Amino acid sequence: MKSQLLNGKKAIGIWGIGYIGYSSMAHFASKGVRCIGYDVDSYKVECLNSGELPIRNIEYWLGFDTKPLVKSGMMSAVTDWQALISDDVGVHLICVPTEKGAEPYAGALQEVIDCLTMYSDVKTDTPPLIIIESTLTPHTTELIVIPQFEADSLKVGKDIMVGVAPRRDWFISSEMNLKTLPRVVGGTTEKATDLMAEVLGIVCDKVLKAKDHRHAELVKSIENAYRHVEITLANQLSLAYPDIDMREVLKLVGTKWNIGTYHPSFGTGGYCIPLSSKYVIAGASNKDKLSILGAAQHTDDDMPMIVANSIIEHKYRKVGILGLAYKGDLKVHTLSPTIRIAEYLRAYGILVKIHDPYYTESEIMKICGTESFEFPEGLAEFDAVLVVADHRAYQALTRQMLLPHLMDCKLVLDNTGIWQVYNLPDAGIEYHLAGTENWL
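Request: output the structure for the sequence above.
Response:
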């Protein structure tokens, strides 16, 4: 399969051209493999085919220009999925969301598998290889994917090859990407595992073979569940010792060789960490044995409400929130603490407005039901400001440029610490970094 991809006989089909799918396309295309992407979002497809980036700032993470790859025909996209069901497409990467709201969700995955079952009507010289890059609830391949294929007379391991290789990338660091991070792969057969390792080895520096798909499925969820527990413990410690700068303590704790450094926050967001414990619990045979993960989930869910209650108890009436995205310079608001904080505050009649440079006014209104405001000029309206995401835009100004717009502001709560440099207490503004003394 590797030689067929590299000599142009076969192409790779990518289902979903978000962060995962687009980056997979770009990396394979840069190695000389022709890639065809499919997405239901016609805007993303049009952007990609015109050589424009469908995702803002992804160029910082990729580290190379994709326009030449589009111009040469190595990257293209369609809105008609049937274009991918062909003998010409030998490998398929499934990169669709596997969450909906705050819960694991297999609907989009099932829709893709339904499309791929159309291979039962296509004559192929080699069985198509299906690699699921999305994070899965354990046993999804066994309970959903394999039965769907075999219900349409496609014998998995013979007519079609299937495996799991969840992505581990960190989309704000060019050093932690598809090429550099070790890749775990596991197929439903040993041959499928070998094929996956061969194909992904085109772009991945190190590929690790799991025993099978069942073991590979668990890796992504469990590694993020470890982080979920550690991050949540940081929040619990901050709440248990309100008069201690827990950030300082945890920074010192992290100097021990076998302990990571974690910080309290307004709550975790994104596709992975806040859902990881739910994935692991959902797939477990003995769910009651995972009490630690259950407690982590409940604490994390409560953090936005705890932050909001602090604002309410201190009687602030006008709150500006900086950042709808859960993380700086990403346009991803999945499970962002901003959404839940805004919801709690509005329920108590507090005026809430949100700014995010990556979202339009209409998008903010649709997602949160709140108005947006201009930054930094619009800050003048608020008596409290919450800095949630560490977007570069919120750091690219001087103290002299910021302070005139905070004349009526009495409190700034900073989730990441990007406004520490402005020394706001000297200007008479109460400032707290999440996890420091009495921040709530």
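The chain is about 35% helix and 15% strand.
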